[in-house]
Sequence to fold (343 residues):
Amino acid sequence: MKVVTFGEIMLRLATPEYKRFNQSQVLNSSFGGGEANVAVSLANYGIPVSFVSRLPQNDLAQACIQELRGFGVDTSHIIFGGERMGIYFLETGAVSRASKVIYDRAHSSVSEILPGMIDWDVVFADANWFHWTGITPAISASAAEVCRQAIKIANARGITVSTDLNYRKNLWKYGKKAQEVMPGLVEGCDVILGNEEDAEMALNIHPDGIDVTSGHVSAEAYLSVSQKIMKQFPRCKKVITTLRGSVNANHNSWSGVLYDGKTLFKAPEYQITHIVDRVGGGDSFMGGLIYGLLTYKDDSQKALNFAVAASCLKHTVYGDYNRVSVAEVEKLMAGDASGRVSR
Fold:
């Protein structure tokens, strides 16, 4: 089994120790981006994975590539060109103060990618799964077209295609709304992940009776959304939704549901009471889900449980990447959340 992911990886500059932008004199640097985060998770779980992107030919890009290789991610299909790597700035919130993200990714190398630059037939030669997110078509019209090309070729080759809808209102700035672009891409997907806002803003599918600010999210409330998605996109075999109840910036409830057209599976709910870093939480869920669906085959419940447990653990890890092992995830799945020292 080999997975291919395609998207943008950025330099992440974050304030330390919950400081605000206007009070921090230093910023911690690391790398991250939706599809790269998924690739790192899969590599950690022992799944062969290739990350495809476009980066400038400079030392910063080389440092990023070296880091990905260190995790075991194949970077041989990353192409070079353009002038800059995208950047995002993160101010981590606390208690009642929400986190903030500022993007500086205009004219990044991957946003100026063009159809034909990537030979998808070569990339997909030994692939079984292709993953993309709604972030990629949001950054530019040309990136959306390259994504469309990849999905079309993956479909023709019989490769499973998954997406995380990942609606980001601050990125759709090139004259197209998400609802004008995303449905044409999602129609080629077999597995769709998204929350209630993603479904509404990206696909114009409206959820009913969902209030994420209550601190608890009902799984059953998402059944109608999942059914609507499957009706609109008949290729889709599984619709998955993360269930995040926001008590405050440091305390979230966390679970998920999976609908396969017949059964609505629900994972156990975790109370994450002292969040270290929630950025990349959805990506860690997606990485865990792909691993679960590939590893546990027809056991959708176990695949979902793995995804939720993996992403629960991600909230305890600083940075975009989920630096946990299969054994650690399975330990939490089995009910051991004690946090006792492993000697």
The domain at 3-332 is CATH 3.40.1190.20 (UDP-N-acetylmuramoyl-L-alanine:D-glutamate ligase). The two ends are 33 Å apart (CA to CA). The chain has one domain: 3-332.
